[in-house]
Structures are given as structure tokens and as C-alpha cells.
Specification:
With 234 residues, this protein is α/β, with parallel strands linked by helices. It has eight helices and ten strands. The strands form two sheets. A six-stranded mixed beta sheet has the order 6-7-8-3-9-10, sandwiched between helices. It has a four-stranded antiparallel beta sheet with strand order 2-1-4-5. Strand 7, helix 6 (166-181) and strand 8 form a beta-alpha-beta unit. It is globular and about 60 Å long. The structure holds adenosine-5'-triphosphate (ATP). Residues 5-233 form the ABC transporter domain. It comes from Nitrosomonas halophila. Keywords: ATP-binding, Cell membrane, Membrane, Nucleotide-binding, Transport. This is ABC-2 type transport system ATP-binding protein.
Length: 234
């Protein structure tokens, strides 16, 4: 089976700093995967390379078998990216933004799908609202909507619940879980172990640009518990 994401010896340097350092990572279709790590670990850099926005210093990255550099368009079509912030003109309406995003992928007449996304994200009554007038929670949902316009098989979410309240976190979790149950490969970055534990099957822990742990969520939690117990007993 072609991996959803296939990263080999990937590296990104900024001068002397290795933001990513010889990363190997294969994620299979249908997985619900977490990239866990503290500030500056390299999570956003990794997403940015997969989205074709940052050029790696060395190594390769593929989405559904397509190289993010040499087959950029094919790779990008298969990837939905939910960034941390909206990068659209705040005077566009929600619907206009989704139409523009569809055009970016060469999709005309996407109205029925856009309506469905808005309905599913509880944004139907905000379709004609300017982006600048949305609450923080609505903006989060719009960020997800714009990642789905081209029906990508793989979805990456960069800290989708950072700074949101408990209720919104729960509803975002439910929505993301539903995407995975529908067959999407889902990768999310997070600082929170409990978020990865609640949602994901497998996790990579990044630290200073390196993968320091790669395991099933269950095994990772068990080894953290064992380690904590050892510390308490010693
Ligand atoms: P956070 O959780 O804070 O978003 P992160 O895990 O996403 O952190 P990155 O944003 O990928 O981490 O950053 C990894 C490292 O690369 C950091 O040390 C950061 O300062 C550095 N870095 C990122 N982008 C640049 C850039 N354009 N120029 C120089 N250094 C950069």
C-alpha cells in the first residue's frame, strides 16, 4: 500500500540551527497520528515542508506517493492543511474564501460541497459573514473548512485546539474523529499528551528537530507511566 506520508532523512537548517534533523517517518492511509513536541521542536516546519511552503535542506517527503518538491501539484491536491492562523483578507466572507480556495485547486462549481462543509461545521448561517467578524471558535472551524474544499485524503492540523475552551475543544475533537472514521488519514500536532491520547493511535515525539519516540499511543503512555513510577520509587 502507498503510504499516506513517507518522509526519508528529511532535514531543514536555518544557519546553524537544525529545525529538522534526519527525520524518517511513514504514516499509513487511515491512521490517526500525532506529532507531539514542545515549542520549537520542528512540528510546524515539518507541516510547512509537506505543504510545499518550505524547501527542505536534504531528504525527501511524499504525500500519497507524490514528491512534495518534484510533484508539488499532485502532492498538494492530496493534502488538506489546517494552519494555526487564517491568512485570508478579513473582508472576504466565509463562502468567498472557500470559493477562492477551491479555485486555487482548479475546482469550479464547488457550491454543493461547500454548502455541505459549512453545514457539517455548523457554519451555514455564517456563509455571508466577513471573516473579520467571526469569533475565535468560528475562525477555527473556518480553518478546517478551507482545508476540506478539495476533498483531500490526508489532513494535517497544526495545533487545532491551542487556546480554545473546553466545549470547543470537545466539538473539534469530535469533528476530527469523524473525518478519520470517514477514511481520511489525520495527522495533528499538539503540545498536549492528553489530546494525542484521546484521539490518536500512533505518535511521534519530536524534540529539537529529532524524533525521540515513535510508538503506539498505548505503549507510549505505558512507558511514561513506568518512567514516572521509577522516578517516584528511586
Ligand atoms: P511551536 O509549538 O512553538 O509552534 P514547532 O514545534 O512548530 O513550535 P517550528 O516552528 O517548526 O517548531 O520551529 C523549529 C525551530 O526552527 C525553532 O527553533 C524555530 O525558531 C526555528 N525556525 C522556524 N522557522 C524559522 C525561520 N524562518 N528562520 C529561522 N528559524 C526558524
Amino acid at each position: 500500500m502507498t503510504p499516506a506520508i513517507d518522509i526519508q532523512q528529511l532535514g531543514k537548517r536555518y544557519g546553524a540551527l537544525a529545525a529538522l534533523d534526519h527525520i524518517d517517518l511513514v504514516i499509513q492511509p487511515g491512521e490517526f497520528f500525532a506529532l507531539l513536541g514542545p515549542n520549537g521542536a520542528g512540528k510546524t516546519t515539518l507541516i510547512s515542508i509537506l505543504a510545499g511552503l518550505t524547501r527542505p535542506t536534504h531528504g525527501s517527503a511524499k504525500v500519497m506517493g507524490y514528491d512534495v518538491l518534484s510533484e508539488y501539484r499532485a502532492a498538494r491536491k492530496r493534502l488538506g492543511v489546517v494552519p494555526q492562523e487564517l491568512v485570508y483578507d478579513p473582508f472576504f466572507t466565509v463562502r468567498e474564501m472557500l470559493v477562492i480556495q477551491s479555485g486555487y485547486f482548479g475546482i469550479q462549481g464547488n457550491d454543493a460541497w461547500i454548502d455541505e462543509i459549512l453545514y457539517r461545521l455548523d457554519l451555514a448561517d455564517k456563509a455571508h459573514t466577513n471573516l473579520r467578524a467571526l469569533s475565535g471558535g468560528m475562525k477555527r472551524r473556518v480553518l478546517i473548512a478551507q482545508a476540506l474544499v478539495h476533498k483531500p485524503p490526508v489532513i494535517i492540523l497544526d495545533e487545532p485546539t491551542a487556546g480554545v475552551d473546553v466545549d470547543l475543544r470537545q466539538s473539534l475533537w469530535q469533528f476530527i474523529q469523524h473525518l478519520n472514521q470517514e477514511g481520511h488519514t489525520v495527522v495533528l500536532t499538539t503540545h498536549y499528551l492528553e489530546e494525542a491520547e484521546a484521539l490518536c493511535n500512533r505518535v511521534a515525539m519530536l524534540k529539537q528537530g529529532r524524533i525521540v519516540a515513535l510508538d503506539s499511543m498505548r505503549n507510549l503512555v505505558r512507558s511514561i507511566q513506568d518512567y514516572t513510577l521509577e522516578l517516584r520509587l528511586s
